[in-house]
Amino acid sequence: AAILLKLGGYGLIRISPMLNPHPPNLMFPIMVLALWGILMTSSICLRQTDLKALIAYSSVSHMGLVTAAIIVQTPWGLTGAMMLMIAHGLTSSALFALANTNYERTHTRTLLLVRGLQLAFPLMSTWWLLTNLTNMAMPPTINLLGELFIITTLFNWSTPTIIITGIGTLITATYSLYMFLMTQRGSISTQFRLLTPTHTREHLTLTLHLLPLGLLIMKPAIISGLFT
């Protein structure tokens, strides 16, 4: 999710200039599929019962934004796509790391069975909250800057796209909160009374994921200066 999925975006960035200017019969079908994919995969996340499947579908939803931005072929679009790919690579990897810490202790990925873990792991619950806020592009993360670049690019390309991207952003916030509430809040199951405490290496792993996201917003030119 963090690397292989982004190789597809990198391939689109390298191949798209060869097709510039894009013929309309090639550009519009891909753009429609990318925008429709944002809504569909985001909606699928709302009905997921498997934690890892939910995280995987959220990655596909974000890559729909990246694909649409690359196809437009403007400096703002390419900059936003690059920023969102880097930001989501770190965010998605952190979410999978968190899901793995849950699985190692509960041996299940079903959301209904792993509720109330905030009572057992309050510090890990803080990591869940920060990562989910990052996933929904809350400020001051680089995810927000990348999505703003992409949404502005798509709005300049076609005004009605603001409706689709707006709904997609709303659904993203909904399933991110849903994932946090389903895993952390509520009463813990009686079968999970004796759980292994969290380790320093797990907290270090999550720190190395989220710290770059916080530092990049202080100097986004490191990754945004490639196309501007």
Automatic annotation (TrEMBL):
Residues annotated as transmembrane: 26-46, 53-72, 78-99, 111-130, 162-183, 204-227
GO molecular function: NADH dehydrogenase (ubiquinone) activity; NADH dehydrogenase activity; ubiquinone binding
Enzyme class: translocase
EC number: 7.1.1.2
Subcellular location: Mitochondrion membrane
Membrane topology: Multi-pass membrane protein
Catalytic activity: a ubiquinone + NADH + 5 H(+)(in) = a ubiquinol + NAD(+) + 4 H(+)(out)
Cross-referenced InterPro entries: NADH_UbQ_OxRdtase (IPR003918), ND/Mrp_TM (IPR001750)
Pfam families from the UniProt entry: Proton_antipo_M
UniProt similarity note: Belongs to the complex I subunit 4 family.
PANTHER family in the cross-refs: NADH-UBIQUINONE OXIDOREDUCTASE CHAIN 4
Name of the protein this chain belongs to: NADH-ubiquinone oxidoreductase chain 4
Species this chain originates from: Podarcis tiliguerta (Tyrrhenian wall lizard)
